[in-house]
Specification:
single chain; about 280 residues; 10 helices
Amino acid sequence: MKRLDLDVLEMVVAVAETGSFARGAEVVHRSPSALSMQIKALEDDLGKPLFVRSTRSVVITPEGQTLLDYGRRMLELRAQAWASIVRPEMTGRVTIGVPDDYASSLLPQVLRKFALAHPRVDIRVLGMPSSALVPLLRDNTLDLACITKAKGVPGTFIRFEPMVWVGTPTRPVWKERPLPVALFAPGSTARASAIRALQRANLPYRMSYESPSLLGLISMVQAGLAVAPLARCSVPSHLIELSQSDGLPPLDDLEVVLSRSRTSNRPPCDFLAEQILNELRI
């Protein structure tokens, strides 16, 4: 039996959880080509495919799901073993705020690893738009917030996250004029950026739906009633990215930062902040 490399298992988990080789490569800080070669080598050793690849999606096979389940447990044990030696046992609470689009894609793996390494630290997560999290940072309701950069709010740079138009392959509503769009509620940086892009392109549009909820926007797109501007990391695999070739203007990247409250100068907050920056920076 050949050796199961934990680093390659981490790549398998990243691809399975993000639904994409490109986004999985970002999670493990490798190039997409290097990640693809490592997983292909593992598939050759196993004699079975782990993923079914297409131009639009990546789907895990039954054998891949079995290895994924084992891989998660093995990686969790590695994290626990490492933390038990190099980190003192910590107690306390960390309250972190994160918008839905980042909560669903960027933070789950980080928070899971932190919770396994520090089981006596209570983690509380508040899911709200970035604009709603800023006041909670200022009044110390939150310790940390992983948000889109806002004017006047200090934060440590994490990454530039591409923003893309998305639609459903079953109904090409992006060909309609005025263009039906689903946008986040007023105050959203993504909303403001999308409206600026449409106005710069002199593209007529109509507000088909607005909501602070990522799920609400995705539901409208999935129903074929609108297109929506989303952070690429939050685009589900059953939707498609649209571009200038589809008649839509390019969108500015979102700057993701980690902000801290004045009262977050505590070891649990320090360690979680360090882990977020180490794992999410590109």
